[in-house]
Amino acid sequence: MHEIVVCKMKNRVGVLNRFTGLLTRRNINIENAVIISTSKHQVEAKVELRTEKAQNLTHLKRVLAKQIDILSVSWYSCESAAETTALLVAGIEKNN
Amino acid sequence: MLIKRETEKTETKRTLASGADLLLEALKAQGVELVFGYPGGAVLPLYDAIYRQAFNNILVRHEQAAVHAAEGYAKATGKTGVVFVTSGPGATNTVTGIADAMLDSIPLVVFTGQVGCAAIGTDAFQEVDILSITAAITKQSYQVHDSGSLAEVVKEAFAVASSGRPGPVVVDLPKDVAAMAVDEQQRSQTAGGFTAKTPVYPQRKLAFTKMQQLRDALLRAQKPLLLVGGGVIAAGAVPEFRRFVHRYKLPVVSTLLSLGALPVSDPFSLGMGGMHGSYQANLAFSECDFLLNIGSRFDDRLATNTSQFAPKAQVAQIDIDDSEFGKMILPDFAVAADAKEALNWLLAHPAKTQVRDHQAWLQQLSAWQHEHPQHYVEEKGKIKPQAVIAEVGRLTAGDATIVTDVGQHQMWTAQYYPFTRAHQLITSGGLGTMGFGLPAAIGAKLAVPEKEVVLFVGDGGLQMTSEELDVIRDYRLNIKIILLNNQTLGMVRQWQDLFYKKRRSQTVFNGQPDFIKLAHAYGLKGLRLASQNWRETLADVFATQESVLVEARIPALEQVYPMVAPGQPNQKMLGVD
Ligand SMILES: Cc1ncc(C[n+]2csc(CCOP(=O)(O)OP(=O)(O)O)c2C)c(N)n1
């Protein structure tokens, strides 16, 4: 399974540091990332994660969501690498 | 409350204000009466403003202590604690305290000095990237780049620290921002609009249907159990909680951090649960058929084996932080809500069915309590730590503000002090930080000067922050320090004895300082209890209005029981036979 997390964040110094820190702590690697600013005050990060089975992804999602500078979190599980790439590149929001 | 140091002179206010002045005004507007801090190069402008404004800064002797003192202050009042430190080593010295506050959900705002904006990133003298260092142990952090945004940042920092699930916030303040002159307009912005708590989180609507389902399931239960966590105290929901317990007739297990939410003497109280919890509390976990957890995070010292925890129960959880649901235990009912709001709902919406009286279940629980009451063995000619704590409980009528360090004495205090009220026990739960006790007691005393403040501390932990004895002398605080000296790192030694075949590696001190002389060196009274008349001596100590360091030499090999070995299910307790 390829896990993709999509976070809308405030466009502030250090916000990605906080985001990646929560992954680092859980030994989760970032396979791919697309980060774009969606407005003057917001960025959107689409990040593909490599996760182990044991990881409590629901917990991670909620921990991400409660960060002050993270405005929304959505989660996608893709079957194939092709699907993953499509999602990352094409823009998940539009497809949904 | 303002404590002025005698040596401090107040100058008349100058008209020219700096960013630092603005900051102090913003703090005052937040209701901040005192801060705990320590000066240094990067905060010279800040300390200059403190001097000019005669702002109340409690001068600690180590920055770690500033944070623990602020935690003690916050825990004793529910208010947000504030810390000022310089950049570099001043900032890194706060890390342990910030982590402690994060794990125990204590509202703090820590202002760290920083090198001037232009020097950031150049490895300037005393420059560290404290925001990165503390990212994992703060709710949020900020670096201020112009004095114009100071007011907003302070406002947001306090809102973040104190709302939702409370926690620590770091505000990094470059030296030039603090030194910058500010114009009148910026000043007036600060003066106004600081009273309201800005909600940082969108207001959540209580999920009525979920609450109804939870309540109905609770009322169907034959053997219900309520687990109360520190969240109930943080939410200021203790009165509602007590009414709820009595209305619904529910036996209650406390966590370490919620002791006092229900008086220990309350007939519904089963005491503390978990690794060193009471027999009846731990058996209640394994036998209950419905467990309602309000504001506890199912910590591993409480739910020692999550897969075998409350095996017969449906689990319901009310927590303001929904990331707690399913983190340790998957609840059957989960309501993300402020504890006060949820409890008020439960009180206002009684079900149509009668509340059961749970007679058989309550009788069973008290039978267990009688079978294995909390106990220790008296030994002739020895001073038992449990007896000392119980005696202090009697002398203070269960009303003192109790602060502990970390170790065996902490667990004995949790077991033997007769807690009666919220905000009464100040202890490092999640991080288990040795050295927390003495500075936290200082913070607590400054927060609630009308209360008797008692510190129970071990000989190991006292040596970690003993320099703060000088703050007690300096500010003439009245804190009763009860040193339970077993001449060992007792709690670690206990684990070595139980799980490492008594190989006492590095846990027995090879000689010790003379703690009485240490007290004397700081101008404090110090005395050692003697086994034949220690109760009388203690009574004398509690009749005085000044600090006393009381050393009780306790048996080195005393164990904390009951004990659930790590990873074992709650009902498997050592020390009950
Ligand atoms: C800063 C820190 N270092 C190490 C520990 C590990 N530790 C936990 S309890 C303990 C022993 C504490 O000894 P003491 O302060 O004498 O208290 P006692 O257990 O004897 O009551 C130690 C070393 C800790 N909790 N905190």
TrEMBL record, chain B:
Domain called Thiamine pyrophosphate enzyme central: residue spans: 212-345
EC number: 2.2.1.6
One Pfam family in the UniProt entry: TPP_enzyme_N
Top-level taxonomic group: Bacteria
UniProt keyword list: Amino-acid biosynthesis, Branched-chain amino acid biosynthesis, FAD, Flavoprotein, Magnesium, Metal-binding, Thiamine pyrophosphate, Transferase
Cofactors named for this entry: Mg(2+); thiamine diphosphate
GO molecular function: acetolactate synthase activity; flavin adenine dinucleotide binding; magnesium ion binding; thiamine pyrophosphate binding
Pathways per UniProt: Amino-acid biosynthesis; L-valine biosynthesis; L-valine from pyruvate: step 1/4; Amino-acid biosynthesis; L-isoleucine biosynthesis; L-isoleucine from 2-oxobutanoate: step 1/4
Entry-linked PROSITE patterns: TPP_ENZYMES
Assigned GO CC terms: acetolactate synthase complex
CC cofactor note: Binds 1 Mg(2+) ion per subunit. Binds 1 thiamine pyrophosphate per subunit.
Keyword hit for Magnesium: yes
All residue ranges annotated as the Thiamine pyrophosphate enzyme TPP-binding domain in the record: 405-551
Plastid recorded as keyword: no
Residues covered by the Thiamine pyrophosphate enzyme N-terminal TPP-binding domain: 19-132
GO annotation terms (biological process): isoleucine biosynthetic process; L-valine biosynthetic process
Coiled-coil annotated spans: none
The reaction(s) this protein catalyses: 2 pyruvate + H(+) = (2S)-2-acetolactate + CO2
Family per similarity comment: Belongs to the TPP enzyme family.
Protein known as: Acetolactate synthase
UniProt organism field: Liquorilactobacillus satsumensis DSM 16230 = JCM 12392
